[in-house]
Amino acid sequence: MNNLKINAAGRPVPPEVNGEPVVPYMGVGKYKPVASKCSPVIPSCADFPADGNKCVASLKEALVKAGLRDGMTISTHHHLRDGDLVANNVFDIAHELGIKGLRWFPSASFPCHDHLIPYLEDGTIAGIEGSMNGPLGKFTSAGKMERTAVLRSHGGRVQAIQDGEVKIDIAVMAAPCADPFGNANGLGGPSATGVLSYADIDVRYADKVIVVTDNLVPFPCLPMQIEGNFVDAVVLVGKIGFPEKIMGGTTQVTRSPDRLIIAELTARFCEATGIVHDGCIIQAGAGGISLAIATFLHQTAQKNGWKIQAGFGGTTRYMVDMLKDGTMKYILDAQVFDMEAIRSLNENPGHTAFTLNNIYNYHSKGNFATMIDMVSLGATEIDVHFNGNVVTHSDGILLHGIGGWQNCLFAKNTIIAVPLFRDRIPVIVDEVTTLCGPGELIDVVVTERGIAINPLRTDLIAKAADTGLPLKSILELKEMAEAICGKPEKPRFTDKVVGVVKWVDGTVLDVIRQVEGIW
Amino acid sequence: MEAISGNRGTEVRSDCFIRIVPDDEPGIRIRLKSKVKSLYGQSIHQLVQEELNFFGIRDATVEIEDSGALPYVIAARVEAAVRQITGTGQEFLLPELPQNRYSTVRDKLRRSRLYIPGNNPKLIINAGLYHSDAIILDLEDSVSPEKKPEARILVRNALRNNDMMGIELMVRINQLPLGLQDLEMVARQPLNLILIPKCESAETVLTVRAKIEECRDTGEGPVWLMPIIESAQGLRNAYEIAEATPAVAALAIGLEDYLADIGAERTHGAEESFYARSVVVNAARAAGIQPIDSVFSDFGDNEQLLRVAANSKKMGFDGMGCIHPGQINVIHEAFNPTFPEIEKAKTIVMAYGKAAAEGLGVVAVGSKMIDLPVMKRAQTTIEKAVTTGLIPKEWREIQHE
To answer: Which residue in chain A has the smallest CA separation from B165?
Structure first.
C-alpha cells in the first residue's frame, strides 16, 4: 500500500481500506461528519406470519432463506465468549454451501474461533472486522488474510454500523432464551449469558436477523432484551455454547503477589487523590488486576462509609458483593462474567442490562463513559507519551481486540494498571508498536515499581504529592524497565498493511503491518 | 558428553534451560527457542557467545529454551553447564549493581524475612517489592540435591544483579560441609547475613565465620550470622551458639525439624514447642541478640497466622519467617507496637525524663512505679514505633505542642 498519509497522531495511514475511502485520525473530538445515519430497509408485517411463529427447521435453512451469498457481511456477538458454537456453525454451513468471500463482523473473537482458520485459508471468509484474538491474530499478522483487518472498539463498532460504514447483511444472534416471535434474552437456559447488550445494534440495522437458541420458550420471552419484531427467523438448535467456557476466563482476583501490589497501589492512589469518593461512578472490568482493584475499592468505600452511585461492568460477583452490602447502588451491565452476576440480574432491581449505544457510541448525544470517575484498564504497551497499545505485543504480532478500551479512555480519570514488564518484555516503552489510544486521554500509569501521572493532569500531580505513594515520571518507569530487561530490539515488519486500527469516530488511528518471519 | 542446567516446562517462566554439547565441528552453534526472540534474540546470542568464549569453549552446540530469563539468569545457567564440562572454578560475572551494596546494623529491625527458593528466578525478580524486613535466598531445603550447584550460581548472580531495593539480603546456606561451598560462591557478594541451618554447636558458627573472613574483604561490609536451632542437640547448646561470636545478630528456631527430632507432633495450640521457643528467646536475650521465630506454613490462613505471630511477640520474639509475600503485612501488624502500647510508652518516657531532670531515679505513672527496666522497655517500644514509621522521630516536640 503506497501513498500513506500522516494522521494527526503522526502515524502513516492509507487513504482507503478494502477499496473504501477512509478518513485519517484528526485528533480527539475533531472529526464531525455531516451526514445522515444509515437507514435499514423497510420491512412489512405482511411478509411475516400473523401467528408470530418464525421458527425455521435449521440454521442452514434460515441462512439460505436470508439469501446468503458470496461477499456478504455476517455479524455475530460474543456473549458466549470462548464457549461459542454459533459463529463457527454459520461458517461450517457457508463452507458446505460453497459460499466465498464473506466478511465476518463479530463484536469480539475468542480462541474457540481458531476453527475458522481453514475457512480463511480456502476463501470462504475473506476478512474479519472486529477483534482478532490468539491464532486469528497471528494468522492476520502473517499476512495471510485476504482483506485488510479492521479493528474497532465496542463503541466504534456501534458507530460504524450506525453511520453505515459497515452494512450487516445477516446478523446471526445466539440467544440463551427466545420465543418463536424472536423476543430474546440472556437470562436463562443452559447457555445463559445474562445480557445481550452487544446484539442490540446488530438487530436494529441488519438486513436480516436470525435468532439461534437452545432454549425456546412460549411467547412472551421476558424481559425482551432483543425485541422480536426486528427478527426474521428463529432457529432451535441442540446447543449454542459450552457453559463452562461462557463463564470461564479471567474472572478470579489475581493471586500473583506482584499483581496485587499493582491493584493495591491503584486503590490507594484513587483514595489519596479523591478520584474515588462518596457518590462516585466506577468501571470494573474482568481480568485479575481489575477484579483485585474492585475488591480493594470495596474495602476503601466500606472503611470511609462511602456509597458508590453506580458501577459499570463487565460484571462479576465482586461487583455484586458491593451491591448486596449496599456499598454500590446500581450496576449497569453490558457483559456478564459469572453465574453470580446472572443471579443478581434476575433478583436485584438495582442491577440492570445496558446497551453499548448509550455508554460508548461516540456519534451520539453524549456518552455515559465520560461520566465515570475511575476506569482501570490494562495494556500491552504504554509509551513515554502515555500512548497506549492493546492489540499487538512488542513483537508486532496481533493478539487482542480493542474491546471497550478506547471508549473507556473518555472517563474522568483513566488509570492503566500494568506490570512494568512481563517475562522480560517491557510494558513501558519508547514508542508503542501500535497506537490504540492517544496519550492525552491516559491520566495515570500504575506499575508495581511506581506510579506515573500524565503531566497534563497537574491537578492529580498536586493531590498525589506528599501521599507517600511511589511517584515516578513515565520516563523513569521506562528506564527502570530497560535497566531490568535490557533494551529490546525492534521486530521486523514488511511494508504490507494487514490491519487498521480505527478510532472511536471511525477515523484511522494506525496500521498493523505484516510481521517478518512468522509461520 | 553433554551438560544441562536450568528449568523448562509450561509452568516455568523467567528461566531458561540450557544444553551444551561439545563437539568437533568448529565454532559455537546456538539454537534458541524463546518467546522473546524477536526482542532479545540478538542480545541472548551475544551474551552466550561472550560467556563461552570467556570459558574457552570453542566448539559446541548450545540449545537454549528461554521463557523470558533476565541476562544474569542466562549467564548463571550457562556457567552451571560449563562447570559440568570443564570443571572450571572461574566465575563469569556481570557488572554488579551498585545499589545492591549496603550494610546493615546488628540490631536492625527483623520482623519479617521472606524465603525465596534459590533456584526459582521468577520469584527472585520481584523479591524486593513486598517491603519485608529481609529477603532470604534459600540454598537449603527449597533446592533439590541435584540442583544445588546451579542454584548457588544463580543466587550469586541474583545478589549482584537483581535489584533488591535496599532490603537486608540474607542467604540460607546448606548444612556444613556443603554450606562451605555455598559460602565460597556468595560470601564476596552484596550480602548482609548468613543463616546457618541445623546449627548444633558454637564450632559450626565459628567455622562459618572463618570461611566468610577468608573470602570477604573487610571493606565489603559486615556479614551477620543467624544460626537456626532445629534439633534437640542444638537447643541444648543454644546459648553457646548465640554468643559464639559478635557476628551473631540473631538466633532462630526451625520448628518442623526440631519437632521431628524430638518426636513431637505439631498441634494447633503449639504446647509441644513452648519449651524450645522459650529456650531460644532466653538464650538470645542472654547473649544480647534477637530471638526469631519459625515460619507459619499455611499461607492461605492469615487469620491463624495473626494469632500465631501475636503469641510469638508475647513470648519475646522479634520476628518470624515468611514463606509467601502475603504473610508479610500480617507479621508486621503483629510485631509492631500497638497504639495503646506506644501511648503508654510515651507517657513513661516523658515522666521518667522529667523525674531524671529533677534528680529522681524512680517515678510513678498513675499508681504504677516506673523504674529503669520499665523505662528501658518503653524506650524499645518507642524506638520500634519510630523505625516502623508509626510515630515520627520528633514525637517529643509534637507531644509538647
So the answer is: A449
